Amino acid sequence: MAEEQAVAAATEAELSDRIADLVEYLVLSIVDDADAVSLEVIDGDNASVIEITVSEPDVAKVIGRHGRTIKAIRTLARALAARLGTSVEVEVLG
C-alpha cells in the first residue's frame, strides 16, 4: 500500500513537471528578461500549484491586458493537466 502511494506521488510530481515545462516555455517566450524567470511547483493533495516569478517590468507582459495572457496560459496548463489526469493552478508572483 505504501509502495503504491510512493509510485503515485512520484507520478504526480512527474506530471506537474511536464506541465511546468509548458508554462515555462510560454512565459520565456513572452518576457524580456529570461534570466529572471523562475518556476516553483508545489504538489498538493488535490492539485499542483505552479508559481511563476518574473522581473517587475515583465509582470504586466505575463498578465496581459485585462488578464488575457495569463488566462490563456492557465487554460493551456489546465488542458494539459486534464489530458494527463491531474489538475493544476498557475499563479504569477512579481
Automatic annotation (TrEMBL):
GO terms for molecular function: RNA binding. It is found in: Cytoplasm. It holds the Pfam family KH_KhpA-B. It comes from the Bacteria. InterPro entries: KH_dom-like_a/b, KH_sf_prok-type, KhpA. Keywords: Cytoplasm, RNA-binding. GO terms for cellular component: cytoplasm. Belongs to the KhpA RNA-binding protein family. PANTHER family: RNA-BINDING PROTEIN KHPA, UPF0109 PROTEIN SCO5592. A probable RNA-binding protein. This is RNA-binding protein KhpA. It comes from Enorma massiliensis.
